[in-house]
Specification:
The chain is of the alpha/beta class. Helix content is about 20%, strand content about 35%. It is built from seven helices and 19 strands. Strands 4-3-6-1-2-5 form a six-stranded antiparallel sheet, covered by helices on one side. It has a six-stranded parallel sheet with strand order 10-9-8-7-11-12, sandwiched between helices. The protein has a five-stranded mixed sheet with strand order 14-13-19-15-17. The chain is globular and about 60 Å long. It starts with a strand and ends with a strand. One of its GO terms (molecular function) is 2 iron, 2 sulfur cluster binding. Keywords: 2Fe-2S, FAD, Flavoprotein, Iron, Iron-sulfur, Metal-binding, Oxidoreductase. Pfam families: FAD_binding_6, Fer2, NAD_binding_1. Its cofactor is FAD. This is Flavodoxin reductase.
Length: about 350
C-alpha cells in the first residue's frame, strides 16, 4: 500500500485570483514511486489547527516534465484550499501520496487519434496534462479542448493553453466558453448539450473522435455523457472525472440499526472490531486510528478502494468503480455501509 512522503513545495505560482499551482521537486530516491500517467492525481496532507487534512488534486504537469505540479483553487469553507492559497509558502513541506487515478491517457507514439475534452474551471488540471502528453508523445494525433469558465480572468492556464495552440496550431484545437462575459470569437454560456453539439456536430463535424475526456462538476458530466450517448458514442470511449459531487446520494439505503463485526486487513495486519451499520467502513476505520488510504471521502476519487473478502456492503454513491470491479468485490470504503452481520475488507489486495 502507498505511503505518504514529505515533499518540498519548490514553487508556488498565482494562476488566477483564487487559484495557485504548487510545484514539487521529487528526490531521486522517490522518482520511481512518483512516476505517473497523464490525468492522475496526488493526495496532499497537512495539519491545520491541530487536525490532519487530506485532499486530492489532479496533476497538471505532464510525465515528461521535470516537476510534479497541481493546482489548488480556493473554495468556500475549503480548509485546505484556503491554507494553500493564503498561508502555504515556497520551501514548506507537505505529505504526499504517490500518484493514483484511472482518468488517464497512456500515449503511443504510433497513434493517429483525435481526442476531444470538455473541462470546466479547475477541471482543466488533468486535461492539460493529457493534452501536453498527446502533443509531445503522439506526434500524429490531434486534440480538441472545449473549456468553460466565468471569464478570461478566471481561466486557469489560459495563456499556457493559447501558447500550446500556437505551437501546435495544426493539431490542437482550442475553444473557450465564458458564462459571464460575451466576447467576440468565444462562446457565451455554460458547457451544455447545445455547446457540445455545436462543436461536435457542426464546427468540427469533419473530425472523427476516438476518445472523449470530461472533467468538471457532476451536472455537467452527466449532461455531456447523455449527449454523447445520444450521438451514438459508446461508453467505452468516454472517460470522466468529477471535481465536485452532488450532496444527494444516488440511492437511499435501508440499513439495519444493528452492528457488524468488521475485519480490516491493512499493511498485512488484521484488525477486528464492531461497527454500527449506519456508518461507512472508512469512517469507522479512521475512528480506530488505522492508517487506511483515503483522500476525498466523497466517492469521487479511488484512493480508499478495498476488496470485500467476506460479507456484503452497499455504497451510498459510486462514480468510480465499474460493474465488473464491483463484481470482483472492490468497494469504495468511504461510501460502503455493511449489510451483513460480518464484513471483511482487504486494503492490501487491490
Amino acid at each position: 500500500m502507498s505511503k505518504l512522503h514529505p515533499l518540498k513545495v519548490h514553487k508556488i505560482i498565482r494562476e488566477t485570483k483564487d487559484a495557485v499551482s504548487l510545484h514539487f521537486l521529487v528526490p531521486e530516491n522517490l522518482q520511481s514511486e512518483f512516476k505517473y500517467n497523464a490525468g492522475q492525481y496526488l493526495t496532499l496532507e497537512t495539519e491545520i489547527q491541530g487536525a490532519k487534512i487530506r485532499r486530492a488534486y489532479s496533476l497538471c504537469s505532464a510525465p515528461f516534465e521535470e516537476t510534479l505540479s497541481v493546482v489548488v483553487k480556493e473554495v468556500k469553507n475549503g480548509r485546505f484550499s484556503k491554507f494553500a492559497n493564503r498561508e502555504l509558502r515556497e520551501g514548506d513541506m507537505l505529505s504526499v501520496l504517490p500518484p493514483e487515478g484511472k482518468f488517464i491517457l497512456e500515449p503511443n507514439k504510433n497513434s493517429q487519434n483525435t481526442y476531444a475534452a470538455f473541462a470546466a474551471g479547475s477541471g482543466i488540471t488533468p486535461v492539460i496534462s493529457i493534452i501536453k502528453t498527446v502533443m509531445e508523445e503522439e506526434p500524429e494525433s490531434k486534440f480538441l479542448l472545449v473549456y468553460g469558465n466565468k471569464s478570461p480572468e478566471d481561466t486557469i492556464f489560459m495563456k499556457s493553453l493559447m501558447d500550446l495552440q500556437q505551437k501546435f496550431s495544426q493539431r490542437f484545437m482550442l475553444e473557450f466558453v465564458f458564462s459571464r462575459k460575451e466576447l467576440e470569437g468565444y462562446q457565451f454560456g455554460r458547457i451544455s448539450r447545445s455547446i457540445a453539439n455545436y462543436f461536435l456536430k457542426n464546427k468540427y463535424k469533419a473530425h472523427t473522435f476516438n476518445s472523449y475526456f470530461l472533467c468538471g462538476p457532476e451536472p455537467m458530466i452527466e449532461e455531456l455523457r447523455e449527449t454523447l450517448s445520444s450521438n451514438g458514442i459508446s461508453k467505452e470511449k468516454i472517460q470522466f472525472e468529477l471535481f465536485s459531487s452532488s450532496s444527494v446520494p444516488e440511492q437511499t439505503l435501508e440499513v439495519s440499526e444493528g452492528n457488524t463485526a468488521l475485519s480490516v486487513m491493512l499493511d498485512d495486519e488484521e484488525t477486528e472490531f464492531i461497527m454500527p451499520q449506519n456508518k461507512t467502513v472508512l469512517e469507522v476505520v479512521l475512528e480506530q486510528n488505522l492508517d487506511a488510504p483515503y483522500s476525498c471521502q466523497g466517492g469521487i476519487c479511488s484512493t480508499c478502494i478495498a476488496r470485500i473478502t467476506e460479507g456484503a456492503a452497499t455504497m451510498r454513491k459510486n462514480q468510480i468503480l465499474t460493474d465488473d470491479e464491483i463484481a470482483e468485490g472492490l468497494v469504495l470504503t468511504c461510501q460502503a455501509q455493511p449489510t451483513t452481520s460480518v464484513l471483511k475488507v482487504d486494503y492490501d489486495d487491490v
